[in-house]
Amino acid sequence: MNPNLDKLQPYPFEKLRALFAGSRPPADLPEIKLHIGEPQHPTPQLVKDALTANLAGLANYPATNGSEALRQAIAAWVGRRYGIPAPDPATQVLPVNGSREALFAFAQAVIAPRKHVQPVVISPNPFYQIYEGAAVLAGARPFYLNTLPDNDFRMDFSRVPEEIWQATQLVYVCSPGNPTGKVLPLEDWQTLFDLSDRYGFMIAADECYSELYFDEDEPPLGSLEAAKKLGRDGYENLVMFSSLSKRSNVPGLRSGFVAGDAAILKAFWLYRTYHGCAMSPPVQAASIAAWNDEAHVRDNRRRYAEKFAQATPLIARHLKTALPEAGFYLWADVSPTGLSDTEFTRRLYAQYNVSVLPGSFLAREAAGCNPGRNFVRIALVAAITECIAAAERIHAFCTSL
Question: Tens digits of per-residue pLDDT, 148-177?
């Protein structure tokens, strides 16, 4: 077996199950799950109709690069969404089976072994654990860049030592961030692009939360948009990752795309032809319908905005939290309660049957601290009635303390 498998850490939800072991929540309180970022809003009918209308496609092997119609739909959406010229559907867009699969596979394709220096992969900390697993199984060393309240949860690239930059081959960026909701500003993109030019590393921009925001007039800045603003028309060393899962409430569809540097995508496409991960034709048809429609996406944002508007003030009475810049998480500091993030989570579940996720489970010890410690991630993904009920239970729990 690959010895690097032994370096993988348990997934946060495995740790949560262990934390809850032996707990017996009140039977008269229905369970409300706010620990996992799984969209619960209805799947748009147009997506289901397109999927079922194209089941005949199951009789055909799909192409790794997807259909021309799908690539064109994705490219057109990128152009509309970010106000930039649409990327070339033939060379700058590649459909993938959800951003998670692609984020992992990308590291396997781009990390190059070196004789005397172990490659480094930089990620934010806290982070989506796929970044860490992808780095480890590609034979690289993860470097965790803390995102902390005192820096407004930004990735402070000045904190990366020179010797780390010298060995870095890949930087994962999550914007809007999971779990903080932070959107990388243009000046930080400029810094990162300059560093990429200097050291030659690639940038994987995870943008799966890009369509969950609260002001229709101010959508979050995207990486390709930032590159265009800064004169990087060829998206040198940059690949963005996007998905329909959160945007269109279809996490089970496993549909997304990567777009950016044509040379990188050509090599990634070659890797994928051997990886065997082409998208099913019915899923491609459903994806085209989703990317071509914005009405259901605006309605989706309206639902989240309503939940955040009603739930956040209740929770913020006791925990340090506020509306994120984007995404569907509240990143809440529980230190005012006097409890650790794990004890807060365990007791909230045991006494009120509401599950959240300890922030320390989403981070690693780095630079002398675990930046997730004393935080919990609250995913406002359930129905609005459940989210309000959960906020009321959190309020009651904190009051009881």
Answer: 999 999 999 999 999 999 999 999 999 999
Q: State the CB neighbour count (10 A cutoff) for residue 318.
A: 18
Compute the C-alpha angle 377/382/383, nearest 5°. 145
Where exactly does CATH 3.40.640.10 map onto the chain?
Answer: 45-293
Instruction: Give dist(CA 9, CA 189) in Å, integer.
Output: 30
Report the C-alpha gap between 378 and 331 in whole angstroms.
7
- Euclidean distance between CA atoms 82 and 226, whole angstroms: 9
- For 276, residues 6+ apart whose C-beta sits below 8 A from its C-beta are none
Q: What residues contact 18, with CB distance under 8 A and at least 6 apart?
A: none
253 neighbors 48 (Cβ within 8 angstroms): no
Long-range contacts of 184-188 (CB under 8 A, 24+ apart): 184/154, 184/155, 184/221, 184/223, 184/226, 185/154, 185/221, 186/221, 186/226, 186/229, 186/230, 188/154, 188/155, 188/157
What pLDDT, in 10s, does the model give residues 28-73?
A: 999 999 999 999 999 999 999 999 999 999 999 999 999 999 999 9
Question: Which amino acid, residue 161?
Answer: P
Those residues with Cβ within 8 angstroms of residue 272's Cβ, 6 or more apart along the chain or in another chain: 64, 94, 96, 105, 109, 278
Superfamily of domain 3-42+296-400: Aspartate Aminotransferase, domain 1 (3.90.1150.10)
Contacts of 151 (CB under 8 A, 6+ apart): none
CATH 3.40.47.10 fits 45-293, yes or no: no
User: Of 5, 6, 14, whose CA–CA distance to 362 is shortest?
Assistant: 14
Domain ranges in the chain with CATH number 3.90.1150.10: 3-42+296-400
Number of H helices, E strands in the chain: 14, 12
pTM for this one? 0.97
